[in-house]
Amino acid sequence: MLAPHSNAATNARTTAIEVRDLHKSYGSLEVLKGISVAAQDGEVIAIIGGSGSGKSTFLRCINLLEQPNSGQILIGGEEVKLKKTPTGLEPGDRKQVERIRTNLAMVFQSFNLWQHMDILHNVIEVPVHVLGQPRDQAIVTAEDMLRRVGLYEKRHAYPSFLSGGQQQRAAIARALAVEPSAMLFDEPTSALDPELVGEVLKVIKDIASEGRTMMLVTHEMAFAREVADRVIFLHQGRIEEQGPSDQIFSNPRSERLQQFLRSIG
User: Fold this and answer.
1) What is the tens place of the pLDDT at every residue in 162-171?
2) Helix, strand, or coil (residue 190)
3) What is the C-alpha to C-alpha distance for residues 58 and 210, in angstroms, rounded to an integer?
């Protein structure tokens, strides 16, 4: 098991991701009801909860893939500029958002790989065409990332010729290739067959051990307990309970969290 960060170390770190009083509704359905979370630099936070609790919506709002209705989002201490519209808050500065997204990579439930490109070109696409890296440099970085996730030998294969686990590892390599300061994982193993889950979790565990800031939505409770510094339990759009992983899983205080953990065995 990975050793948790000490409180002293946590206090000494800067805030990598901070969300203040975030609200999100779809019509009359209020999905997020005032979420406030701060992830310190190098901290791994696992977000758990039942279906419909708002976990994925929360991550997508942080990355502005969804428009929150109100609240504040700060990345590395920099507040994301948001402007009010009839449908919610929209980015007030697109260039700022593009810049922040290069430091805040996201890995999705579905792999979202470009099917017409081999794996190597999937990984270099953003560094070359968005970040403006020289192609040769991007290829060297991409090949290094693919080695890290065990896919170097598959670098010229197309996504359709890879297993689901291999495709998700390729998606993780693509996220790492922009050298983000923090990473968001939205149930990265939920689309995988059970026998493929372990290979993806191992890669994520290796990334977590490097001290990279991570927020991870997952239904893999044993994995969350092992890798997370802190666990947040969402229930009906609110934080019902949060704390160190051992406390959350060994001594849950909320009756709802107790029921949730019993329900998943």
Assistant:
1) 999 999 999 9
2) coil
3) 25
